[in-house]
Amino acid sequence: MPRFIIERNIPQAGDWSDEEADDVTAKSEEVLANLPDVQWQLSYVVDDKLYCVYDAPDAESVNEHARRGGFPADKVSEVRRIIDPTSGGR
Question: Which top-level group of life is the source organism from (predicted)?
Fold first, then answer.
């Protein structure tokens, strides 16, 4: 299944309390329960953005999750290749 990186512009996301982060997680999981082909892998929270990793059949499915959850999806990019220190790009 294709993998996508979603960039979400959310001012002060890096300052969320544990409770605020839990609320966002719960909302995402609620929406995902009705989108069985979409899987949230993880998210990186930085100062004013989230970078989320999702597996989904297509970018439209990722955007549908965002619409239903009320989350921004400012940029959705399909992962073309994964490289790491052990792969040498292969």
Answer: Bacteria
